[in-house]
Write a structure and sequence with these properties.
Layout: E1 10-14, E2 40-45, E3 52-56, E4 59-63, E5 68-70, H1 73-83, E6 92-95, E7 98-101, E8 104-107, E9 114-116, E10 131-133, E11 139-146, E12 152-153, E13 156-157, E14 164-165, E15 168-169, E16 179-186, E17 192-194, H2 203-206, E18 209-215, E19 221-227, E20 233-240, E21 246-254, E22 266-267, E23 273-278, E24 285-290, E25 295-298, E26 306-312, E27 318-323, E28 332-337, E29 343-345, E30 356-361, E31 367-373, E32 380-385, E33 394-398, E34 410-417, E35 424-431, E36 441-446, H3 466-473, E37 477-481, H4 491-495, H5 503-517, E38 522-532, H6 534-545, E39 552-556, H7 567-574, H8 581-587, E40 599-605, H9 614-625, E41 631-635, H10 646-661
Parallel strand pairs: 36-37, 36-38, 38-39, 39-40, 40-41
Antiparallel strand pairs: 1-34, 2-3, 3-4, 4-5, 6-7, 7-8, 9-11, 10-11, 11-16, 12-15, 13-14, 16-17, 18-19, 19-20, 20-21, 22-23, 23-24, 24-25, 26-27, 27-28, 28-29, 30-31, 31-32, 32-33, 34-35, 35-37
């Protein structure tokens, strides 16, 4: 990574640590009034105007260019009627799994073996729904998922008088996958066809992933990114929406590790070209194509990631995007000229490239609202003119520190070198208020470390939540490092863990531990590690490998053996157990249970349908067989995350564990 792209290398943040003695209590950690970003939100421009409507203090307000005032009841009703777009499920019903559109029967399903109109492929590849209306809503495309061939996986409901089985379909790595097709229903004619995505009858063809569905503006064609089960080859295909026949394959992408398209094509305003997001050059960038599949140009380029497309201007000359070009720990908004590739940073107010930003543009892209926070700024919402991107013309909101009445820790953002000796890794270090000279403090490493994650960000409290503030207020140093294998740093950075999850990640995390040991206030004899899901896997991995360093571990919903994880995610990063037996064996924690030394608390939701309960149960069994003591706690009616009021219970459970065994 070029040094010039590392803008945010060190930020020290202290919020009146000596001014107040008040500290958070465990039952406050889910108090959303202490999160400044919730105070004012839902910014929108009134269609066809520069007037801004937003929501604060449980009411809608309008800014007309001169003053802010509450909406009248009539204005609010009119605004809601205008601004609430039709949802994909409007006009769609499901009865006993069958699909109906505008009251008319479309297709049979049962909601279990045959599932219609829902997200497929375990929500991978950016899929978050199963209904796709054409632009004028004359046709509806929908997923049909046949999972009858996938073995039932048993979950149990213990709320009933006698416990009941509530099985799910959970295709595990290396086993039979479900099979998906795409139906297209014509509302006027009532005709239903299926796209010809299977052009032979082989299992290989039937198990392909159908992703990133998009309609052409004229509603004549549907586009799909089709990926083989091995996830190393993608075909971007065009289908006739009337017949379902393949029109052509526009282009292909391959990679010996994996390809992972997560965004549908984006048509330019004229509809004669489209943008495609790809990491084919090593970073996530925009590519401009003609409709015949010919590449016109690569629009963005460099050692940074495009994190999303916002909109085009009306002429289609510029596209507005999010990217981390100027601050790898943050996110900025840019205007990009499609012809020249010139990028203008909309959110570098007064020339400073800090913070994590979201923007809302008016229809003609002459004005925009920038909603943002940074590691030291709780939150701001400002109005800008596109002709002057450096000075706001109006400030809607500038948050006070919601924790100003509390004794605040010090937050530090910085970088250390990865285990390869050359790659910069971002860390967040939180230290207690009013630290005493010469005193050593218990230290907790909080880890996730897996794909699709970035925990250390240039946003309020450096991306931390109140739980970490709470721990620091009670005398703990809390450290988090985004190791190689996490997101927004390029394909090599994320995919270098391929087929060997846990190895590179742990090597980088241990570099973080070396850094912690160099700090005079860190007690090397009182270090703990905590994480959930992939972080639970990392927690146990690190605790078993380094019992001499980590006195305590707390792992929630941990992956124990990747052979028990689902196909779509597991096979992308590990291939199948048949293809990669050595990799699966090396990162399985079952045979390593014998190495457990010290305190380890494992927590799991009994109804977890993401990391199924089998993982931790079998790990506990191995601990018993090896005469290793382990602490275990379950949440009987929770899935993968402990939500609601029980979340505070979880925080208190972990805190008490550290108070007993770490502090």
């Amino acid at each position: 990574m070029k040094k010039t792209t590392i803008i945010l290398t060190l930020v020290l943040l202290a919020f009146g640590a000596t001014a107040q003695n008040k500290i958070l209590q465990s039952d406050q950690l889910m108090d959303y009034t202490l999160y400044p970003q919730r105070a004012i939100r839902s910014f929108q421009f009134l269609p066809g105007t520069d007037k801004v409507i937003y929501f604060k203090d449980n009411s809608y307000f309008i800014f007309d260019g001169k003053q802010e005032r509450p909406l009248t009841d009539k204005e609010e009703q009119q605004f809601k009627a205008i601004e609430q777009p039709l949802a994909d499920n409007d006009g769609v019903e499901f009865k006993d799994g069958d699909l109906y559109v505008e009251g008319k029967f479309v297709e049979h399903g049962d909601g279990y073996n045959i599932v219609l109109g829902e997200s497929v492929h375990r929500n991978e590849f950016g899929i978050n729904g199963g209904l796709f209306w054409s632009p004028k809503r004359s046709r509806l495309a929908f997923y049909r998922m046949d999972q009858s061939m996938v073995q039932d996986y048993p979950l149990v409901n213990t709320k009933t008088r006698e416990a009941e089985a509530m099985p799910i379909k959970y295709p595990m790595a290396g086993m039979k996958s479900h099979e998906v097709t795409v139906g297209v229903y014509d509302v006027a004619s009532g005709k239903l066809i299926y796209l010809d995505t299977r052009r032979d009858t082989t299992l290989h063809e039937r198990e392909m992933y159908l992703t990133n569905i998009a309609w052409s503006p004229d509603e004549k064609y549907i586009f799909i990114a089709k990926i083989n089960r091995e996830q190393n080859h993608m075909w971007f295909e065009q289908y006739d929406a009337s017949t379902g026949k393949l029109v052509k394959t526009l282009f292909e992408e391959t990679n010996p590790r994996y390809v992972e398209p997560c965004d549908p094509m984006i048509f330019t305003p004229k509809g004669d070209q489209f943008l495609w997001l790809s990491r084919r050059d090593g970073y996530r960038h925009l590519y401009l194509y003609n409709l015949d599949g010919k590449l016109v140009k690569q629009v963005t380029k460099g050692e940074y990631e495009v994190e999303g497309v916002i909109q085009f201007d009306k002429k289609g000359e510029n596209v507005f995007i999010y990217a981390n070009r100027d601050n790898l720990a943050g996110r900025a908004a840019f205007r990009v000229n499609l012809k020249s590739g010139k990028m203008d940073n909309l959110t570098s107010c007064e020339g400073m490239n800090w913070g994590t930003h979201s923007v809302v543009l008016n229809e003609d892209c002459t004005r925009y609202i920038d909603i943002w926070s940074s590691a030291s700024i709780p939150g701001r919402a400002e109005l800008f003119n596109i002709k002057n991107m450096r000075q706001p013309i109006h400030t809607f909101y500038e948050a006070d520190n919601p924790l100003k009445d509390y004794a605040m820790p010090t937050y530090k953002l910085g970088t250390i070198k990865a285990a390869d000796g050359k790659t910069d890794l971002y860390y967040r270090l939180i230290t207690p208020p009013d630290m005493e000279p010469g005193k050593k403090y218990p230290t907790l490493v909080y880890v996730y470390g897996g794909p699709h994650s970035q925990l250390v960000t240039d946003s309020w409290l450096a991306g931390a939540n109140l739980y970490f503030t709470f721990l620091a207020q009670h005398g703990y140093v809390v450290f988090t490092l985004d190791n190689r294998g996490t997101s927004n740093r390029g394909f090599e950075f994320e995919s270098c863990t391929h087929r060997h999850l846990g190895e590179v990640e742990m090597a980088d995390q241990m570099e973080g531990v070396k850094f912690l040991k160099s700090l005079p206030y860190v007690d090397q004899d009182r270090m703990g590690v905590e994480g959930w899901s992939f972080g639970g896997f990392m927690t146990i991995t690190m605790k078993l490998a380094h019992p001499e360093i980590f006195k305590v571990g707390c792992a929630g919903g941990p992956v124990i053996d990747w052979k028990w994880y689902e196909i779509m995610y597991g096979e992308r990063y590990m291939d199948t157990p048949q293809e990669n037996p050595d990799g699966y064996a090396a990162n399985s924690l079952l045979d390593k249970a014998k190495d457990l030394d010290g305190r380890l608390l494992v927590i799991h939701g009994c109804e977890d349908n993401t990391v199924v309960w089998q993982h931790s149960l079998e790990f506990i069994e191995r601990c018993i067989n090896n005469n290793r003591q382990v602490d275990y706690f379950v949440y009987p009616h929770h899935e993968h995350n402990v939500r609601g009021r029980e979340r505070n219970h979880l925080y208190k459970k972990m805190f008490d564990y550290y108070e007993t065994f770490l502090k």
